[in-house]
Amino acid sequence: MGTPAGFTLGELAKTLGATLEGDPGRRVTGVAPLDAAGPEQISFLIDARYRPAAETSRAGALLVSEQMSGLAGPLLRSSAPQQALIALLTLFHPPAPTPAGIDPLAIVARDARVDPSASIGALAVIASGAVIGPRVRVHPLVYIGPFVEVGEESVLHPRVVLCEGVRLGRRVVVQPGAVIGGDGFGYVFDGGGHRKIPQVGTVVIEDDVDIGANTTIDRAMLGRTIVRRGTKIDNLVQVGHNVEIGEHSIIVAQVGISGSCHLGRGVIAAGQVGFADHLTIGDGAVLGAQAGVHEDVPAGERRLGTPALPMLQAKRLFASQKHLPDMSRRLRAAERRLEQLESRLGIARSKTGESGTADER
């Protein structure tokens, strides 16, 4: 991968829309982290916390923000360094070309519709009635169930499973092992056992959604489980039946969203957040790592802890926890001194801990 000949800094500055401080003819052949980069490579400083590493880096050039000062060149200064980094990495590591067509070892139903520009890998299975759009890439060992629709330029990595009736929009990326459209978890106990509630709905994934490895998104009992456009879902996430996740949300690894939750636009759920069922999470809400969310969260609110509390309150509670052993010792010592004082004053203490004078008794 990459370009062996590399690029000159002048070429990179023009392509990235950056301002160059240094020799435009200097050539770099790759991108590397600050601590591993050599004189023939370019590195980057996006987060100021890594400035010490940048100051000692052997990189031949650095991509930095316009505001970064005090660093030795050569420098490529960008007003949007994170976007420039994406472009830089894409330049050196362009996507591998994918030939269109169906591998001879793939199994495609006669009535499935596969666009001629799509690529279907070996041992992929495409069931009856499925529709595969233009420039879709289906990697080997993917299963696409009956009447599934996959929108143009979507990518399905190995061992992805799309169950019956699932619909994917355009430019959806599904990482290895993800299962979309498995049955929702619904049972009723009839006195002798748990009877399964039929799960007859579907899943709709809108445009530009990314779904991480081994994530599961359950079909609705009735209606649709929906992931709105632009949302990014990490690995090992569980999305229950009839859940709706709003546009441009971020769902980090090991989050569990119980059935019928409604997450608004731009919600952020950090790692291992757990949601009880039938909750409404307002637009722009932020749930910190390992939050246990048991009630609705208003728009824009930030919560942390289990049960999830307003973030500032939760942080104060966390900070006080380390003092609990000392506070417990001090409380026991204070109780002993109080008992001694009450004894000298002739105050008796009842079994419940209440005290009173002999006359009061």
Describe the structure.
With 361 residues, the chain is of the alpha/beta class. A 12-stranded mixed sheet has the order 8-11-14-17-20-25-28-31-34-37-39-40, covered by helices on one side. Strands 9-12-15-18-21-26-29-32-35-38 form a 10-stranded parallel sheet, with no helix packed on it. The model has no long low-confidence stretch (mean pLDDT 94).
On the 0 to 100 scale, the average pLDDT is 94
Superfamily (CATH H level) name of the largest domain: Hexapeptide repeat proteins
Tell me the strand order in the biggest sheet.
Answer: 8-11-14-17-20-25-28-31-34-37-39-40
Give the overall form.
flat
Radius of gyration: 29 Å
Question: What's the helix count?
Answer: 5
Largest sheet: 12 strands, mixed
The strand count comes to 42
The CATH architecture of the largest domain comes to 3 Solenoid
What is the domain total for the residues? 3
CATH topology of the largest domain: UDP N-Acetylglucosamine Acyltransferase, domain 1
Helix content percent band = 10-25%
Span from first to last CA?
A: 89 Å
